[in-house]
Amino acid sequence: MKSIPILFSSLLVLAGCASYPEQVRVADEATLVSFPATMKAGLTQGPARWSGVIAKVQNNSQNTRLEIVYFPSGSHGRPLVEKDTEGRFVAYAKGFLDPVVYQSGKQVTVLGQLAPFEAGKVDQYQYNYPVIEASAVYLWPKQQETTRVDVEPWPLWRGPYPYWGYGSGIRIRTTIPTGETPTQGPAHVQHQDQGSQQR
Hints:
- 4% of the residues lie in helices and 46% in strands.
- With 199 residues, the protein is mostly beta strands.
- It has one domain: CATH 2.40.50.140.
- It has one helix and ten strands.
- It starts with 11 loop residues before the first strand and ends in a 9-residue tail after the last strand.
- A five-stranded mixed β-barrel has the order 3-4-5-7-6. Strands 1-2 form a two-stranded antiparallel sheet.
């Protein structure tokens, strides 16, 4: 087992780099263990906050197991699913999380403490999952689309005869970017105890 105090600073990330939802927010000066560092060094302890997309949900007698495809977080904490994933991890949350709400494909951010790796499979491929004993699981709301209309000058031919000529006109261009969502999701679970949980 590796200990956090002996890690190089490059294995830690500052919590103050992004504005996360309140349920998974920590002090700005807090340091967290990153997913790449955990995978590279095999870390099994320390605070962590990772984001991703739910792949599987399993309800146990005393907790819920979430298998999550990791994606790096954006400026507000939401997983950047357009980026390449670096692997998967497992999060254990106390109590019952409804699989209809926390369903495959939903985006989450998990805050908690690292635990020993867990051996498993992705289809037939043997895979060692890093594990977080979750104190909070934030379920991101669906992103809303916003419409922006740009009005800009555009040259065109004018008429009718005998007034045909080259002059200025107006071109309207509509784009539909993906809007940033608010930091309050419709559902989340939060626990104060970050100790070991029965799996």
